[in-house]
Amino acid sequence: MSVDDPSACDAHPRHLRLSAALSVITVAQIVSAFGIQWYTVAHLGVGAQADALYAGGTLPQIAIALLMEPLGFVLIPFLSSKPEADRDRAGWPLLCAIAAVSSIVAGILFLIAPTVVPILAPGLAESTAELTVQLAQIQVVGLIGSGCGTVLSCLSQAKGRFVWPALSVLICTCGGWVLLVVGLDRWGVWLAAWVQVAIVIGPGVLLLPVLGGATRGSLSDLPSLLKEVWDRMRPLVASASYNRTGFVVDRFLASLLTPGSISILDLVLRVHSAIGRVFNHGVVAPIVPQMARLASEKSWRSFNALWRERVWWMGCLSGGMVLVLVVGAFAVSRLNVLDHLGTYGILHFGDLTRMWVILMSCSGVVLAGGINHILVNAFYAQGDMLTPAKIEVLTYTVGLIMKGVGALFGGLVGIATAISFYYLLNSVMLGVVLRRRAAAQLLDNKVIERNPFMPGELR
User: Fold this and answer.
1) Is 453 helix (H, G, I), strand (E, B) or coil?
2) How many C-beta neighbours within 10 Å does residue 259 have?
3) Distances in Å between the alpha carbon of 49 and those of 44, 133, 263, 412?
4) What is the pLDDT of residues 297-349, one digit of tens each?
5) Is there a contact between 286 and 162 (Cβ–Cβ < 8 Å)?
6) Is 2 exposed, middle or buried (0-12, 13-18, 19+ CB in 10 A)?
7) Residue 192: pLDDT band by 50, 70, 90 thresholds?
8) Roughly what angle, to the nearest 10 degrees, separates helices 142-158 and 163-187?
9) What pLDDT score does 335 carry?
10) What is the rounded distance in angstroms from the CA atom of residue 236 to the CA atom of residue 337?
11) How many CB atoms lie within 10 A of CB 23?
């Protein structure tokens, strides 16, 4: 696209407006995500009930890590690379298929929860383990909404609509917070579990209009669609079964520590992942369809410039957020804020201090998580699902060893530090491999430009 092209001049303000809107939503999501988790733990306390709530979320989160996250990674470039008519025809059959699969998976997890949950958190007391099973059976219902929401969000983003998917999550999170304020003291941890379900299902309901006006594809198109999607998902699911389930190990190790360790670690990781998720919505989501198109056109110079630019953006944002956390921790300490917060709910000063220490020990999740997301999507946009999976297997193995050592010698702080180390190591290795590939691609382009009549098989 030339500088004199009017569309280039128009595109820049549009991107700025989109980034500004997503940034505002990002800030609101960070506040709401932190607030709803804080409110829950503050009222339940750091103890058996909070541990049961978060340990009960392990089963549905395993399904999300193994199925929904790989599906999201695959669907955006898959749908973005299709002509508009084909993309619209694919939406309805895919939604029906994923809704059916999600329902089956949710039913299976509901039935096996009494057997599996005690294995995943062996350190819980018997009464806490029973409560954990019941809360797990509630939370697996959210898988149906998660699956449908993933399809609709990817379809919306493939059409260039980024604000409404992010805004729908914010609306549902704020709605869940209102429910907790109204009823948590009355219905306790049971309401907290159902609110988690509502927050996951809500965005899928709000995104249903994205199908409106589109040509509904026939269900007869479904076998070919599912085959193509599954062929892309298969290596991701295989790798995810190993390296996307680190939270299972985290909760397993935390259940062996003092009561409340699961809830503290999970609260901290939810805060960090919420920050990472909204950064991804604001910085990464808008460029994934564009990267897929550039890769399909083999416009490697523009492709590599795009992901490098966003890595710098993400590095500045995540680094700034970590700095805010550090300054915030210092300010809280100097102003004795924890003394005042300790009177809110049933949290104690020691619980709050412990949370801040774990929060800072896990800061590598914020620092490197968003960069990892950009780099992984750069590989996926090129149709390469195997390279990032191989790298993650290696770094995850190192991370597992570090977690075991950290839990043995440093308890919860050791586990949190090992998690940060894993994220940082993964971003470094992904970046090194992608930079080497980018250099090779640019070199190939130069060779082709100098030899335009080179046979296709040598290009």
Assistant:
1) coil
2) 16
3) 7, 12, 9, 19
4) 888 888 999 999 999 989 998 898 888 877 876 666 665 555 555 444 555 66
5) yes
6) exposed
7) very high
8) 160
9) 58
10) 44
11) 16
Instruction: Tell me the pLDDT tens digit for each residue of 350-372.
Output: 667 788 888 888 889 989 988 99
Contact call for residues 161 and 76 (beta carbons, < 8 A)? no
- How high does pLDDT run on average in the chain? 82
Closest CA to 420 of 407, 432, 403: 403
CA angle 120, 273, 98 (to 5 degrees): 70
Exposed / middle / buried, residue 205 (Cβ in 10 Å: 0-12, 13-18, 19+)? middle
Distance between CA 157 and CA 150 in Å, rounded? Answer: 11
Neighbouring C-beta atoms of residue 387, cutoff 10 Å: 17
DSSP state letter for 256: T
* DSSP state string for 58-75: HHHHHHIIIIIHHHHHHH
Count Cβ neighbours within 10 Å for each residue of 67-103 and write b for 16 or more, e otherwise.
Answer: bbbbbbbbbbbbbbbeeeeebbbbbbbbbebbbebbe
* The two three-digit tokens of residue 275, written as one number: 């920050």
Q: How far apart are CA 285 and CA 262, in angstroms?
A: 31
What dihedral angle (degrees, nearest 10) is formed by the CA atoms of 116, 121, 126, 131? -70
DSSP class per residue in 139-188: HTTHHHHHHHHHHHHHHHHHTT--HHHHHHHHHHHHHHHHHHHHHHHHHT
3-state secondary structure of 207: coil
The domain segmentation of the chain, as residue ranges, is: 25-458
Q: What is the dihedral of CA 189, 190, 191, 197, to 10 degrees?
A: 110
The token duo for 418 is 């090992």
| Structure confidence by residue, pLDDT tens digits, 440-450 | 877 766 555 55
The mean pLDDT value for 84-103 works out to 86
Give me 182's structure tokens. Answer: 């109204």
Between CA 152 and CA 163, with CA 158 as vertex, the angle to 5 degrees is 70
- The confidence score (pLDDT) of residue 457 equals 42
Give the count of alpha carbons within 13 A of 451, CB side only: 9
Smallest Cα–Cα separation from 71: which of 203, 217, 237?
237
Return d(Cα 121, Cα 350) in angstroms, integer: 24
- CA neighbor of 87 nearest in space, from 231, 225, 208: 225
Q: What is the pTM of this model?
A: 0.69
Cβ atoms of 205 and 151 closer than 8 Å: no
Distance CA 210, CA 203 (A): 12
